[in-house]
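Ticket reopened. Same input as before:
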Amino acid sequence: MMRFILPFVLFVILSVFLYRGLGRDTAEIPSPLVGKAAPAFVLPLLHEPAKQFASKEMLGKVWLLNVWASWCSSCKDEHPLLMNFSQQHIVPVVGMDYKDKPVDGNETLKAAGDPYNLVVSDIDGSVGFNFGVYGVPETYVIDKQGIIRYKLIGPVTPQNLQKTILPMVARLQAQ
Amino acid sequence: MKIAKLILPVFQVFLLVALVALWLPANAYAAVAKDIADDPVVETRMMHLAEKVRCLVCQSEPVSTSHSDWSQDVRRIMRDKMKEGATDQEIMDLLVARFGKSVLYDPPVDKETMPLWSAPFLLLLIGGVFLVIQLKKRKELVVEAKLTAQDEQRAAALLDEIPALSVLNPSNDNKLSASSLSSASLPQGESADVSLRDARTKETQA
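Engineering reply: fixed in the latest deploy. New output:
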């Protein structure tokens, strides 16, 4: 009997590993910044470059930081969802126009609509680098203490919004 | 014939030049990604360090050779930090803090990476133990057949039927036939072989 059970068990274990390997996106790297304080930044606003926004203004609030760019095609995929989401006023969403010309960024928002409470422009990408941004779009959930709680690499989808981001926001807001 | 002899070396030279010409542009592309190198010392140091950093947006490429936007940024930051006087270790720590240990081509052995480093040895150990157990089991399965007294008698009787084989049966006293067949200079085993063979040939002859 053992002759059949042992290979079968080994086969099942191997299958589980291979199946999990199939579902894994190797391009997605768990951020070491989750659970750590979000890097503080001061950046000019996209709409009014003369004005500046400091990340510490958000202390005491749960907020989302959405990194996007006019040149980023999958940002256009998540854009309608963000538009819809922002109308619900659940959580403030700060946009970061990453490595983009402010002219292009402004044009994109004018054409497709602006889902953000405010947008900062990170022209040279140095703030993005501090956040460990390597693929746009990326979305961060930041808690009241300014700690990064979650990092999403890739576009926001109805699935990850409902399953992960919204429950997390609700939990953090209750704290 | 003469024309062919004249043309051949010319053609060979032409081929060589063509080959070199084909290879040249490829070589130009293979060069490390261009960057603004105002300080060659910093640049070589940076490139040396960038070889150890994985480009996260590429497939299996170090930051040093990647043309991607992200790699260019990393190189720029490395260069800037070096000019500010940061050590190589500080720069690597900075990158690890931002992007995790997966940016390192040679990740350190620690609590987080331990499963990764130990897995091959663990698998080898498991395989080895399994093999030893299996081999032991197999040894137990192969038991030397025990002959009953009856079997032994039967075997002796069978051996007696072939006179040439009597050398194999010590109980047989017909030693003459054995010694006449096997040469005395051969060792015991071989002489037995020889006598066996002889016995067979005798049988077929008969």
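The longest helix of chain A spans residues 2-23. The two ends of chain A are 55 Å apart (CA to CA). Please confirm and we'll close it.
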